Amino acid sequence: QVQLVESGGGSVHPGGSLRLSCAASGFPFSRYVMSWFRRAPGRERVLVANVIPSNTTTYLLDSVKGRFTAFRDNDKNTLYLQMNNLRPEDTAVYYCNRPSGGIWGQGTQVTVSS
Fold first, then answer.
1. 64 DSSP assignment
2. 34 pairs with which residues across the strands?
3. Rounded-to-integer distance, Cα 21 and Cα 16, Å
4. What kind and span of H or E run contains 90?
5. Which residue from 20, 35, 41, 104 has the fewest beta carbons nearer than 10 Å?
6. What is the pLDDT of residues 84-99, one digit of tens each?
7. Residue 80: predicted pLDDT
8. Distance between CA atoms of 113 and 91, rounded to whole angstroms?
9. Which residues contact 67 (CB under 8 A, 6 or more apart)?
10. Of 33, 28, 27, nearest to 53 (Cα)?
11. pLDDT of residue 87
């Protein structure tokens, strides 16, 4: 069974950090491009980052550049999103995605507020 399970969300103050994880199972993770998306309240879901199998980030949303890092560990079948210097506008549900086949995780909530 193909599955993506996110974890690591939570509530932090502005300037704080979180690391999201996406545990993949049921498919050869190391062969697939993986992505992070987010959906802020009342807004459409947007692409945050793409990471190709070689662990190169081929896309990063402009508003998170210099603050977020997306990377993967193919040995652990896990995709990560390290989020530093968080801002209130980063508040959203974050989703892990495998573009090929349109596989989505259930999402994890990130809330940034003072």
1. G
2. 51
3. 17
4. none
5. 41
6. 999 999 999 999 999 9
7. 98
8. 8
9. 83, 84, 85, 86
10. 33
11. 98
Q: Which two tokens stand for residue 25?
A: 């199972």
Question: Mean per-residue pLDDT for 33-61?
Answer: 97
A 10 A CB-CB count for 58 gives 12
Give me the residue label for tokens 């491009």: 33
Pairing type for strands 34-39 and 103-104 reads: unpaired
Q: 60: number of CA atoms within 13 Å, CB side?
A: 14
With cut-offs at 50, 70 and 90, classify the pLDDT of residue 60.
Answer: very high
Q: To which residue do tokens 């980052």 refer?
A: 49
Q: Residue 71 has which token pair?
A: 């990377």
Q: Which residues of 101-110 are buried (b: 16+ CB within 10 A; e: fewer)?
A: eebebebbeb
Tell me what pLDDT residue 16 has.
Answer: 98
Query: In degrees, to the nearest 5, what angle opens at C-alpha 97 toward C-alphas 96 and 100?
Result: 165
Do residues 49 and 35 touch, judged by C-beta distance below 8 A?
Answer: yes
